[in-house]
Structures are given as structure tokens and as C-alpha cells.
Fold:
Amino acid sequence: MKDINDRTRDLGPFEPKPGDDMVVCRCEEVTQGQIRQAVHDGLFTVAEVRRYLRCGMGLCQGQTCARLVKGIMARELGVSPDELEPASSRAPMRPIEMSVFAKEGGRDGE
Amino acid sequence: MKRYDLIVVGAGPAGMSAAIEAAKHGVHVVVFDENARPGGQLFKQIHKFFGSKEHRAKIRGFVIGQELLDEAAKLGVTVELDSTVIGLYQDKEVVVKQGEQVNHYKGDAIVVATGAAENMVTFEGWTLPGVIGAGAAQTMMNLHGVRPGNRVLMLGTGNVGLVVSYQLKQAGCDVVALVDAAPHVGGYGVHAAKVARTGVPFYLSHTIKRAEGTDHVTGVTIAQVDSHFQFVPGTEKHFDVDTICVAVGLSPMSQLFKMDGCKVVDDRRKGGQVPVVDDLGQTSIPGIFAAGDVSGIEEASSAMIEGRIAGLAAASYLGFATDDEERAGVDANERALDGLRQGMFAPKNRGKKVEKTEEGIPVSQTLLERGYVADSEIERFPGVTHRVGIHPVIECTQNIPCNPCQDVCPKHCIKVGSHITALPQLEPDANCIGCGLCVASCPGQAIFLVDEKSEPGFAEVTLPYEFLPLPQKGDRGQALGRDGKPVCEAEVVGVKRTKAFDHTAIVTVKVPEDMSMRARFFKAAPATETD
Amino acid sequence: MGTRIAEHPILGVPQKGRLVSFTYDGKTLQGYEGEPVAMALKAAGVMVHRYTAKRHEPRGIFCAIGRCTDCVMVVDGVPNVRTCMTPLAEGMEVRTQYGATAVPFDAGEKDEASAKDGGAA
Structure:
């Protein structure tokens, strides 16, 4: 895992590829090219890319694209997808309106 | 806040089985599920399950689903629907969205059985309306009675891709092709064969290049890929379709385990990120268990057994079952689970290409590359023999854990033996009475009754049939070969449906004598009048 | 309703609620009470549920089980409603969603700024 965050490693210049215009994150409409570019810009972890581009942060919370994003990043980094730490999992696991999220039933919760 | 002995997350096959097993021991259980109806994917499974009696083999998935719900209701298990678990924490605190508010629950033990999510692949146009997951197709046609499309291309030849292709045909859709980037069919050969014989072509080492259409899918172009999965120029093929169905595998939905701090690992053989569990399904946090696809992608049959083990282990953890009770129950279930994990498609063989059967017979290459066993290959399998008079021809050519054919024959003509993955064969002194139970019961629809010389110059072939309209006695049409291509003229001489056949009709066709080992499907001549 | 299965070889005749009317972009359509809104639309031949915020691309049913959220529409004035999970009721007003509203985009305009405020938690 330590090698992945080694920021001295050289990924070479970013070169456009066919399919760069293809949407990967369907909710936030993030393309393959944007993800590849972000890796070349120095974002080597899924969590960083997710915060920066919002892929996996939309309505579906990465249900569809999490695995795809990981695959694209791994290819760009020249590692196996298994070596990339997936983004963290936090509540809420499903889309929920803020008004509902704020409405605690029963006892006042933590 | 409410406190329960046991909280189960997910009312699918694993979760319901866990709840039932725990409730049997007096545990106060609640099951949360985000859907409007319980049962998970079982109610979309309309095919007969593989396995043996203890795995409820030859029973259709949705029937098993109803049995589970009935049993849970009888035991007083509470199932809360439209209840989305949005958080799970280390101290077994569960946060659930129910209606327009968020409720907190505390469980003394937790079973997480959240199942799996579908994987996807990207291609040009993959976001167009009309590109859907295979699960979506099943939901539309099997739960809601709506066809996903009229002309469909299926990507993926794993069991999901094969089974859903067959179901699409049952729903009256035209499946134009089955496509897979892999060089070999991924799912059971029998599932492939029952699709191929209806005339659906298989394109292995092919994948989708683009989906076409402006507002929705109107066509698709596929092309061959080389061993590095790069397109081979000049191999493009176009199909007019309104629907593209994607079935490229499943990933465990294990996010809740990560959230609560259980140890998780990436395990490719299990389909992705899974919690680390012991043989009872217990995670690194005592009292939190995993069962079903969330702990590794398998079948619904194994999910139900894993659920029973986790439910029993939870009961024991909570002090509702003695160690002896737990041990005895777990041992029996583990034997059942072991039975399902045998054979060519066992988890340990995932991704491996098996060249020979356990009997040492070379596996049919045509089956792996085109979805059917070639006429030149079929005779080498032990279930395929020639006899005088009517007799079963068992075209079961891969070692899978399944034996209803052996149990169902009233004359004990068919033998699998005690080793459940052995290829079935006809007993030497078999006295077949032509009842058709084996034909209708085989979950792989791989058994045919053949009378090689029913009258001079003619033979009769009895085949399983699960489509509408059902052929009628006297209908004429074509017999199709295993490859789905017409081999000869055929006349329907018998159609049988009984309760024991469970919606699988058996259709007997009369064909020329030399076609008895080739004719394997019936296609009625197109109706002359419009209907 | 050409895409409804009249009779299924295994499941028989689908069990449905009563036939009710609802509107889709102002047009009156019919569907069965209690079935997901998305199914009633599908049976009526509607493919496009929404146009995306950034690229203005069409989307429709994708997962059909409430995971992907691609089938969201404006239902009774509320945007981002998952039509595959929402039971159909008499008189429902269903509208195509453009970005996060039911107001069509101006032709030709693809606005990066309108991508904000998608309504996610």
C-alpha cells in the first residue's frame, strides 16, 4: 500500500485515450478522462479522487461506479485494483433527504 | 429506541434463513429490508434450483421464497419493510430509515445479509435508456409482468446472463445474441444449452463496441476481442435491438461491515470486498455475523445454508442454544454446504478452465465456445446411450452438484450415486416407462426421452418445453438441433402437463429415424393467419 | 400496452391492482395501482425519464431496484423520486426531470453551473 502513495513515482505524461469522453460516474457525470487526468495530477487514492471529482458522491453513492473508478485508477497507476484502498463507508448508506436525516424517531439519538 | 436479541439486515434467502433458525431457538428477531416486499432476489428466480433434496432442488426460486416467508411468519419473526439500514456501528447499534424518519435500534447480535450489487462495464452509449442490468430485466418481467424490450442483446455468459436470457425468451422477447469478452461460457453448460437450442447465437471473445441511438437504444455493435481484450479491427457486427442487458458479475454489498469496523479483505474469488469470517460466519467483532452473497458471491441455495448457520451461531452466542445443539446443527448444514461446493464450478475452481470431467472425459469445447454440445461430442458422455424402446438420454456433461433425476425416477433407472457431482447414467437394467418425470424435473433441462425406432423410419423425441404458446398435438414445424438450427420436419405427437411437472410441459415430436440423437427443440411453423 | 406479458409460461397471468390514470408530462396514461411508476411508463413505451444536469443526456431505467437512481423523475412536484420504487397511484403527476427540475433546458445550452445542487445528501 505504501508504494501507491509514493508521490515521487513518475506516471509519465497524461495522454488522451479513446473513451476519455465516456461517462463513468453516471450520477455526477464524471468521465474516464477526468479520472485519468486526476491520477496524473497526483491524486493516487480513491478517496481523494472521489472528493475532488465527486465520482461516487452522487445520488447512488457509488453503487455502480466504485468498482469502475478503482479499475481506471489502478490501470493508470500500473497496480492491481486489489491494492487500492476503496473509499470509506459512512452513514447514510442510501440517499436520504436532509429533513428525514434530521428527524430522529424515538429517543434523541447520538 | 428498541432493543432486540438479534437484528438481521436483509430479508433475502440468507437473512430470512438466519432469522428462522434463530427464532426456532426462541430468539427475539427483527429483519430490516429496504424493499417493499421481502424475499430478496428469490422471487425473480423462476427456474428450478440445482442440488439435492436437502437443497430444495427442482423447486423454483419464487416457491422457495414463499416457503421461507411462511415459515418466518409462523415463528413470529418480525420483518420490517421499507426500512433502509443506513448505518451500523461497532456496538451493534443500527440506524434505520423508516418512512419519513430515522430510528435507532440495538441488537445483542447482528446478522448482515445485504447480498450483492451488479457489476457494470462501460462502452460508448452505455448510459442510454435501454441499456439495463440483467437484474432490472428480471425485476421487470418476473415481478411486474412487463417485458424489458422486444429485441434484446445479452452481455455476459455467467449463470445470470444465461438464466436471464432464457427468462427473456419465456417472457416473449427475442434474444438476438449472447456476448462475452471471455473466450469461454462462464456459467453452467446446461443453462447455455437450453438457450442455444432455441436458436440464440453465442459470441464468445466478443464485446460491445457501442450502443446506438439518440434518445434510447436502437442498435448495438459488437466486435471480437483478442487475448488482451483489444478489439480486432474489421470484426464488427451490428444488431437492431431496443434493449442491451448487462450481466457481468456481482459484487458483495459489504459497506456496512467497513462502517462498523469489522475486518474486511479484497478477495477476487469471492467477488470483491468481503468481511473476514470464521466457519460460523462470525466476523472479527463477536456477535456480528455475515451470511449469503455479502460474504462471497455464490448461489441462493448456499446463501440459505449460510443463513441457517449464522442464525444458529447467533442463537448460541446469545445463550439460546447449547454448544451441543449448535455443533450438531452446524455440522449438518456444513455437510449440505460442502455438497453444493463440489464440482467444476466450485468456488475453488473459479476462473479456472476445467479440461476434463471427474470421470476423465474431455469437456465439450463447442459447449464452452458456442453454448451447445456438438453432435460429434455428445456420445462420449455416460448419460447418452442407445437402447431398444423408449429411454432417457441424459445430456449432462459437466460435474455440477445436482441429482433430482436420480430421486425422481419411479423405476430407479437413473444413477448419480452418492457422489453428487458425478455425471448421471442409465442403469444397465433400466426399465423406462416413459413417464417423463426426469425430463420435467432436470433443473438443467438436459434430459430427453428417445424412442429411436417408434415406427419404421421414424423416431420420437420427448423434450422439456417452458414457453408459450404451448405446441398442440398435431402441430407441424421444425425440429431444431442442439445448435438451434433446423435439422428436419417434425410433428407433435404428444404434449403432457401434470402438477408433478411444475409448469414444465413435455412435448413429444416425431422425426425421421436418423434424427433421434439430433432433434432437441421444436419450433412451430409460423401461423398462417394473424393472431 | 404491447410490452405487458399477458400470460407467462411459469408465472401465469400477472396479478395486478386496479387500472388507474396518471399524467406523464401532461398526457394522460394508464397503469396498475401499486406497481412501480417506472413499470407503468415502460408499458406505455416511455424510455426517457430524465436529462442529466451537465451533459443534458437522456437516462431511463437502469437497475430497477432503487440502487442506481437513474430513473428519477419529478413526481407530484418532488424531484429525484426513484420511479422504480414508487408505487403508482391514481392521479399522480409524473414529469421528465431536467437536471433537478421539471423545467426543460434551453435548447443548445449545456450549463456546468446547473450541475450543482443535485439534491444529494
About this structure: The interface with chain C takes residues 34-36, 46, 60, 62, 117-118, 127-133, 135-136, 139-142, 144-150, 170-172, 215-216, 466-468, 470, 503 of chain B (CB under 8 Å). The two ends of chain B are 60 Å apart (CA to CA). The domain at 120-246 of chain B is CATH 3.50.50.60 (FAD/NAD(P)-binding domain). The longest strand of chain B covers residues 101-112.
